[in-house]
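User: quick one
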Amino acid sequence: MSVFTTVTADELRDWLKNYSIGHLVSLEGIPAGIENTNYFVDTSHGRYVLTVFEKLTRTELPFYVHLMAHLARHGIPCPAPIADRDNEYLGTIHGKPAMLATRLAGRSQMEPGPAHCAAIGNMLATMHVAGQSYNRRFDNPRGYAWWVDTAPRLLDFLPADERALLESEIAFQRAARDDGLCRELPHGVVHADLFRDNVLMDGERVGGVIDFYFAGDDYLLFDLAVTLNDWCSDAAGELDPAKADAMLRAYHAERPLSDAEHRAWPAMMRGAALRFWMSRLYDFHMPRDGAMVHKHDPARFRDVLRARIRAGDTLPWR
Amino acid sequence: MSVFTTVTADELRDWLKNYSIGHLVSLEGIPAGIENTNYFVDTSHGRYVLTVFEKLTRTELPFYVHLMAHLARHGIPCPAPIADRDNEYLGTIHGKPAMLATRLAGRSQMEPGPAHCAAIGNMLATMHVAGQSYNRRFDNPRGYAWWVDTAPRLLDFLPADERALLESEIAFQRAARDDGLCRELPHGVVHADLFRDNVLMDGERVGGVIDFYFAGDDYLLFDLAVTLNDWCSDAAGELDPAKADAMLRAYHAERPLSDAEHRAWPAMMRGAALRFWMSRLYDFHMPRDGAMVHKHDPARFRDVLRARIRAGDTLPWR
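Assistant: Done. Structure below.
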């Protein structure tokens, strides 16, 4: 179950009086939510999504909410938050922060071909460029510092071969940074979780990019690596060269990748795999109280990491 | 012809590099423009309208552009301006101010029924409420002060009966204000030109409200009267009671009309008719240099004004 806060039609009708989107036509819970409660809200004026935030606080939310508003007004097809009559994006439902945003067209494409990978690669580059003028800052909470802090706490849960893999990969990532490999990489606000289920495809067009609640500041190349690892890996974790090539070329056409990014690419692909292997291990072995987080299998990104290490410098590039 | 500034596909491709909306797919001039040049612009990311401003200046435009942005983020289906990579809404094409905005669905309904009139009445009330939190101010340049200033300049062009009508109506409007009839009327930013051709209907739903370049601060009731005079009048200028009733009820349901507004309603309907009779006389008899303004027949609103005067206090009300 993933509707944690029940909102009745009567409650919503009352709440909508704070907004300028007409009267309620229909209300339907969305089961896909993991961290938040989401409803489809159709009104006489249009189609919206209501999000009730179960964990994120009023202190944390403005970074994400204003990021979506910023990207939307730059033309990125992401949820555009709707301001209420007091000009605020965040309201309150059942004592929790809540937001209305536009509903986007399309559905997740879980078996993408090269054309889909090209579309999302181009959109990602566009988002990165549009994000450069966003002026709020928030370090990616699942970035390199988190890897280094968290790895020692995970070791005891792992069999010997995985423990060795985790230790050596952390050492590799540290050495890469100590060697200055990341020094010249462009950085900025990144989505950091642009998996297939966070993109709505409308045919071969990107209809919507959703779920910005892992966004933060990091290397733009890290975001590309996260995206490519999900969209362009096969069942064994190996890269599909046609899909990877399509994504990289489309990204490069919108935001040309630099020589420094070329040099850092193999390490960044490994780091992006490491990040999800670690966070899945973390959620699996150290679940939070009353965990509502759906547990993904950590083995998937262990395999991706091993595949990237094996591939070394032979990874596809633009 | 109404495309005053020719923009080629090559020029636009170059210009789009300032934006985050993907690459150009198609470009098509829109012949309907009167004061601006407009193009439909389809890109890999979506559908947009490019407006090149032929007369409005960079000093005047921010009021309108930010008004559209404000209303759009409140959920009003109006063109949402797209910010460029420098975070600006207004760019430059051929030395003129230019803007990209979202393209809306629907088409003008020139023979509306009561259901259409209800939809636009409700939308107008919603816009008025959303506009209350807009914080830029600009007096309606075609408001009461303009009527009083301009009437003497029009008299010489008119036959005796129309001259008498204009003089007596100005005197009536002045007396209404001197008597305090308008003192308690809610005011704020209004569209001021919400004729049928400025609304895109998507079936019986309002798909889009466009052309905000006559917007300004005035009585909210004035905007309702302008809208009703166009949508709910028959060929002779008489109100269609079923349409007028539908619009008024739908407006009232969203923003309840006050007793003061009830008292001022007959005078406001006359004032709204007077405004368009006068501006059409003005454009007809005193065309601006190189006038690109399409000349509407002034007689239409003379007839509407006469019909409202005849109807007196028997006009429909919620």
